[in-house]
Amino acid sequence: MKLQPEEKKHQIGVLTLTLITAALFMTLRNMPMMAQAGMSMIFFNVITIIAYLLPVALISAELATGWPKNGVFHWVAAAFGARLGFVAVWLQWSQSIFGITSIVAYVAASLAYAFDPDLGSNKFFIVAVILSVYWAATLANFYGSKGSGLISTIAVTTGVLLPTVALIALGAIYVGAGNTIHFDTQLTTDNLVPSISQTGNLVLFLSFVFGFVGVEVSASHAREVKNVRRVYPTAIFSAAAIGFVLTLFGGLAVAAILPVNSIDQINGAMQAFSALFEHFGLLWLTPVAAVLIAFGATGQVSTWIVGPVKGLLAAGQAGNLPHWAQKVNAKGVPTNLLIVQATLISFIALSFLIVDNVNTAFLILTSIAVLVYSLMYALMYAAAIRLRYSHPEVERPYRVPGGKIGIWIVGGVGLLASAACFAIGFLPASSGELSVETFEIMMIVGVLTVTILPFLIFALRRSGWSARPAQ
C-alpha cells in the first residue's frame, strides 16, 4: 500500500508535542474552580499530582515508547485483546464528545466578554458559537497534523500561556502593593486540608482531576513524532509540569483578586482580568484578553478534535468499524469520522437550549465525561501492569521506575484514583435545578449507553472490515 504523506514525514518535534499535550488540558477555565478552594487548592493540587498526573504521565510514557501506535487502542489490545482495546478507545473518544462541547461553550462564554458579558448566559449565543467554532476547527483539521500542530502551538502560546502569565504577574503586583487579598492565607491545618466528609469537597477534588485529563491523548500523534522514544517522555513530562505550575499560580491569583462568593465557575478568569484591568486603569484591555482566551480554548478544541479520532481510526482499520469510517484523505486525516464527530457534538450542543441554566449543561456534560474517562483510565492502568508480565520482551526505552513493584504501585494508585473518581462522579456539584435522583439517573443512562455501544459494534463487525478500503 502506498504510504500517505503523513506516514512518510515525521513532522512533530519536542516543542510542538509539548504544546499539543499542554493544549489538551491546560486552560484558564480551571482556575476559577481552584480559586473557590482557597488555600485548600494547594492540597488538592498535590493529591492530583500523586493520584492522577504522575500515574498517567509515567504509565503513558512507558506504553507510548513500547507500543508507539495511536495510543490506548493498541495498549489495551496488546494486554487484553481487540475487544477491550476497542472499548478503551471508544470510551476515550466518547468522553471527548462531551468534553469538547463544554470547552467550545467556554469559548462562547469568554468571547461574550469582548462584546457583552450578558451574552455568556444567552443560550442561543452559546449554541451559535459552539456550532460555528467547532465546524470551523473540524475543517481546519482536514489539513493534517502539521496544520493542527501549528494551530495548537499558536493557540496555547498566545491564548493560554500569555494570558496566564499576565494574570499571575498582575495578581502578584496587586498583592505586592498591599491590596486586599480575598481568601484566608493562614497556613493552618483546617485552612489547608479540606474535610473529605463534605460532599462539596469531594466534587471539588474531581474538578481538579478533570482539569488535567487528556495527557495521554497526544500518544495518538506518535507516528508523526521525531524519535518518539526520546521526544514523547520529554514532551509529556514538560507539559504536565508547565500546566501544573501555571494553573496553580493562576488559581491563587484569581482567589486573591475576587471574593469567593462572586467567582463564576465559567467566566471567573475573565472576572479576574476585568477586576485587575479596572484596578490598574486598563479596562480597554478586557476585550483583548477575552478574545485571546477564547482563541486559546479554540486551540484546545482543535487538539481534542483529531487526537481521540486517530485512536478510533486505528481501531477501525483493525477491522472494528466499516470501511466508510476507515477512509482518510490525502493528508491521512479520517474526514468521515471527523464529520460524524462534529454532527454528534452539534446535537449535544442543543442541550444548552433545553436546560434553563447554562451551568447545568456544563455540569451534565463534564460529569458524564469524568465517569467515562475513569473507566478508560482503569483499562489503561490494568493494561500497563499486565504487559509487564505478558510482554516483558518488548523494548521500552522509558519504563516506570522500580521494576514490577514500581508498575504495581503506580498502576495501583491510578486504579484507586479512577475508582474514586467514578464513585464521586455520581455526586452533583450542587442541588441546582436537578434533584440528586434525576442527576444520578442521567449519569447511569449516559454511562451505560456509551459503554454498551462498543461491545455491540464489536459483536456485529464483519470480516470484510479488516480489509483496508481504497483511499
Question: In brief, what are we looking at here?
Answer:
This protein is mainly α and 471 residues long.
Q: How would you summarize the topology of this molecule?
A:
Elements: H1 5-8, H2 14-25, H3 31-35, H4 40-66, H5 72-80, H6 82-112, H7 123-140, H8 145-176, H9 189-192, H10 199-210, H11 228-257, H12 268-279, H13 286-320, H14 323-326, H15 335-349, H16 351-354, H17 358-390, H18 403-424, H19 436-460
Task: Report what the structure shows.
It is a single chain. The protein has helices spanning 5-8, 14-25, 31-35, 40-66, 72-80, 82-112, 123-140, 145-176, 189-192, 199-210, 228-257, 268-279, 286-320, 323-326, 335-349, 351-354, 358-390, 403-424, 436-460. With 471 residues, it is mostly helical. Helix 6 packs across helix 15 (335-349) and helix 6 (82-112) packs antiparallel against helix 17 (358-390). The protein is globular. Mean pLDDT is 83; it is low at 1-8.
Shape: globular
| Structural class determined from secondary elements | mainly alpha
Cα distance spanning the termini: 10 Å
Helix segment tally: 19
Descriptors:
19 helices; 71% helix; mainly alpha; 471 residues; disordered N terminus
